[in-house]
Amino acid sequence: MRPLVSFRNVSCRLSGKDVLRGMSLDVEAGETLVLLGRSGSGKTTALKLVNALLQPSAGEVRVEGMPTAAWDAIRLRRRIGYVIQEAGLFPHFTVEQNVGLVPRLEGWPAEKIRDRVHALLEQVGLPPAQFAARYPRELSGGQRQRVGVARALAADPPLLLFDEPFGAVDPVTRVELQRQFLALRREIGKTAIFVTHDVREALLVATRIALLHDGRLAVLATPAEFLRAQGEEVRAFLACLDTQVTGC
Amino acid sequence: MTPELALEIVELTVEHLLLVGVSMAIAIAVAVPTGILLTRRTQLQKWMIGFANVMQTVPSLALFGFLIPIPLLGGIGKQTAIVALVLYALLPILRNTLAGILGVDRAVRESAIAMGMTGRQLLWEVELPLAARMILAGVRVATVTTIGTATIAAAIGGGGLGVFIFRGLASVDTTQILAGAVPAAFIALLADGGLGWAEKKLSPV
């Protein structure tokens, strides 16, 4: 089967700095590929190349077989759900309006949008009767992040992008959100690319882990393989696991 | 107060409101779109803000005077007064439009783009609603200032409540000065209160 997303020898130069250098990588339909790396390793840049927020300076990124440069950016983005840290919800929209945004932009009838939004809010554990009319400022960080996930799922996109989605919430909420992410994935089985710098989170949610180091793909492995993988950067990340157990 | 004076106060107040109303309408129509445009043209920003800043620093009486000899824009009368008032009102509105839109949270803007909003949708559905309060605050400052500055319009034949003030100054007649100053102050307070109320009502953020 054709990969849903394919990086072909992609480089990206941003304000004079080579952020990505010759990265090649296929993302198969149905998998959760985690881009793991330190700050500045190029993982967020790689993610933004997929929905054409950035364009590669060399090579190409293909989505559904077509280079992102050839896609109409608006059409492409409406087929890709996007969840970022702090959710990026619209503060002047209610929860219902936030979640229903892409369906509305796509011209769905109001009735259908409402049903879809309410079903999604149920799915992410926010009963619509209680939450639909609230504004983002009336929610906790974890609740906002759930709304962000519901919003990304709204128009049923075949691909989801997560940019450190659970980075800004407390550790307890974080674990809850991760569990919910796994449950949601079992239910709907979408393809996802997930950026994180937390190796624990990577091992938990990934079907495959792509470790980026200095703009290059250092390791590409399943979580089980990753634990046994060699190389300095992998060791550095796996050492975090030990530190977290023994260090505190 | 004689009935003649009362009548004249009403007449000149209406004229004053007209001067301010027309000037503000033009200033808003120019400054808001320019502000929006400037958020997309970073290099132009400092030039335009610089121009508006300089306009603000020219003493108002002098600005009215400078405009008189300029063809088309200038001369004696209302038109020149309106040009001067517009130039004064531009800066607060321009600056707040710019600050309001640039102040929209980066994460919010990025997710709007990433969700497939077009440039127009981004502007009308996200940037303008979130900047509305800030823009209105600029309009409020500009309006209140314009109501005061418009009294100087009388010096170049622009009419309005300034007519009383200049007449009173020339004849050392306090009643005349007050007949101009009190209604002007009153209008300014009303405008400030009304626009301040609108600002609070606007957008739940």
| Count of beta strands of chain B | 0
Radius of gyration of chain A: 18 Å
Helix fraction of chain A by DSSP (H/I, runs of at least 4)? 40-55%
Number of helices of chain B: 8
Helix/strand/pairing category of chain B? mainly alpha
Regarding quaternary structure, how should these chains be classified? heterodimer
Helix content of chain B: over 70%
Q: State the shape of chain A.
A: globular
Distance between the termini of chain B: 48 Å
Order of helix and strand elements from N to C terminus of chain A: EEEHEEHEHHHHHEHEHEEHH
Tell me the total number of β-strands of chain A. Answer: 10
Strand line-up of the largest beta sheet of chain A: 6-7-8-3-9-10
How much strand of chain B? Answer: under 5%
Average the pLDDT over all residues of chain B and give the rounded result.
90
Helix/strand/pairing category of chain A = alpha/beta
* Residue runs with pLDDT of under 50 for 5 or more positions of chain A: none
Distance between the termini of chain A: 46 Å
Using only CA atoms, what is the Rg of chain B? 20 Å
Structure description:
The complex is a heterodimer of chains A (248) and B (205). Chain A is of the alpha/beta class and 248 residues long. Chain A contains eleven helices and ten strands. Chain A has helices spanning 43-50, 73-78, 95-99, 101-105, 110-123, 128-131, 141-153, 171-188, 199-205, 223-228, 232-246, and strands at 5-14, 17-27, 32-37, 58-63, 66-67, 80-84, 159-163, 191-196, 208-213, 216-221. In chain A, the strands form two sheets. In chain A, strands 6-7-8-3-9-10 form a six-stranded mixed sheet, sandwiched between helices. In chain A, strands 2-1-4-5 form a four-stranded antiparallel sheet, covered by helices on one side. In chain A, helix 5 (110-123) crosses helix 7 (141-153). Chain A is globular, with a radius of gyration of 18 Å. The mean pLDDT of chain A is 91. Chain B has 205 residues and is an all-alpha fold. Chain B contains eight helices and no strands. Chain B has helices spanning 3-40, 42-57, 60-67, 78-102, 106-114, 119-149, 162-170, 174-201. The radius of gyration of chain B is 20 Å and the shape is elongated. The N and C termini of chain B lie far apart (48 Å). The interface between A and B is medium-sized, with 26 and 19 residues.
